[in-house]
Amino acid sequence: MRAWKRLVSVLALAALAGCGGPSTPAGGPAAQPAGGLQVGMVTDTGGIDDLSFNMMAWRGLAQAEKELGVKRSLVESRQVADYASNLERLAEKGCKLVLAVGFAMEPALKDVAPRYPQTQFAIIDAPGPQAPNVAGLTFREEEGSFLVGALAGGMSKSNTLGFVGGMEIQLIKKFEAGYRAGIQATNPRAKVVSKYTNNWEDVSKGKELALSLYGQGADVVMHASGRCGLGVIEAAKEKGAGFWAIGVDADQDYLGAADPEHPAPPSRVLTSMLKRVDNAVLAVCREAVQGSFKPGPREFGVKEDGVGLSPLQYTKDAIPEPLLRQVEELKKRVAAGEIRPPKTMEELATWKAPAVTR
Predict the structure, then answer these.
(1) Who contacts 38 (Cβ-Cβ below 8 Å, separation ≥6)?
(2) Do 126 and 136 form a contact (C-beta atoms < 8 A)?
(3) Neighbour order of strands in the sheet with 296-300
(4) Against a cut of 0.90, is the pTM above it?
(5) What is the per-residue pLDDT for 12?
(6) Percent of the chain, pLDDT > 90?
(7) Which among 274, 280, 288, 272 is positioned nearest to 124, based on CA atoms?
(8) Is residue 298 within 8 Å of residue 135, measured between CB atoms?
(9) Which terminus of the chain has fewer Cβ atoms in its 10 Å neighbourhood, N or C?
(10) All domains of the chain in start order, with CATH
(11) Is the peptide bond before 265 cis (omega within 30 degrees of 0)?
């Protein structure tokens, strides 16, 4: 496991190589480069080396620096109690836009934003408090999860699939509900078994639960569990041929290769449910630079390129062509609004799977 943790650190640094930008842990001052619109980002406790949610946000800010000339600053939170002080620190240092990464920062933002009316704030994964200087960036996770579920259902040989969630909260239930609905669309005979780690960071727990699901007959396991999902991917690699993991948020497909530092087919990660936090961050930075910042909540789904499938770089040759066509058909219908995957387990109970070309 120590070797795996070292690999995670190496991969995270590689992902950010060339991006520049100062990084300051909680408790220290946030550096402020001169020139350009100052944009700061506060991570949740997962940090930017999670190879997932926070990393994608930081990648989006790196793109904003490249395309829009913004100057970026980073503060990584060590604990929940740091959130308010970290947001304040960036506002005090003159950031014109401050990004709060994660729904758990909403209470802190509700307290901080009114005290800095000249600073614009955007929170990711929450609608945000109602304030003239706060935007809430949320995603239709159920849409992307529906598509990976459709692919997983069509690939399963055992007709048993698994799901590993992090905290058992409504946000993660959106992933689970969409995933189950997608499976119904392509494999109505399949059953799904779910387990929750009840945290975001325990890699060993993620692996333990995934191995348990594989032991119960699952041959595909999706995760929506933050860093815990790295353990899910490790479990799939340990099980080998015939077993798949599904990544989340970032494109985690390469992590399922025998050598993730030099990935090549095959990979034990079938696909990843991309949650394009980077696109959302870039969009709100563009508004701030252009002076068109819009407060209030907004959603990013398949239509807005906010969620979707990974490019299948390492697994496409293993997927039957008819199944790829089915998933593409479903994607177009979701984008057009013809299919609306369920957001909750309650909606799933009465949801009817759409007919797809077989």
Answers:
(1) 32, 70, 71, 73, 93, 94, 95, 96, 97
(2) yes
(3) 23-25, 71-76, 38-42, 97-101, 120-124, 134-139, 296-300
(4) no
(5) 41
(6) 86
(7) 280
(8) yes
(9) C
(10) 2-139+277-300 (3.40.50.2300), 141-275+320-350 (3.40.50.2300)
(11) no
Confidence of residue 46 (pLDDT cuts 50, 70, 90): confident
- The whole-angstrom separation of Cα 13 and Cα 1 is 19
| pLDDT for residue 356 | 84
Beta bridge partners of 98: 40, 121
Between the CA of residue 259 and those of 11, 262, 263, 267, 323, what are the distances in Å?
11, 5, 5, 9, 28
The residue with tokens 């990660």 is 269
Q: What is the pLDDT of residue 24?
A: 41
Q: 212-239: per-residue pLDDT in tens?
A: 999 999 999 999 999 999 999 999 999 9
Tokens of 353: 């799977």
**The Cα angle at residue 156 between residues 155 and 158, in degrees rounded to 5:** 155
Distances (CA, A) of 5 to 77, 201, 202: 19, 12, 11
Cα 138 from chain centroid (whole Å): 11
**Half-sphere CA count of 173, side-chain side, radius 13 A:** 10
- Residue entry with tokens 């007959």: 217
Which of helix, strand or coil describes residue 93?
coil
pLDDT average, residue stretch 10-34: 38
Residues 326/152/157/165 CA torsion (nearest 10 deg): -160
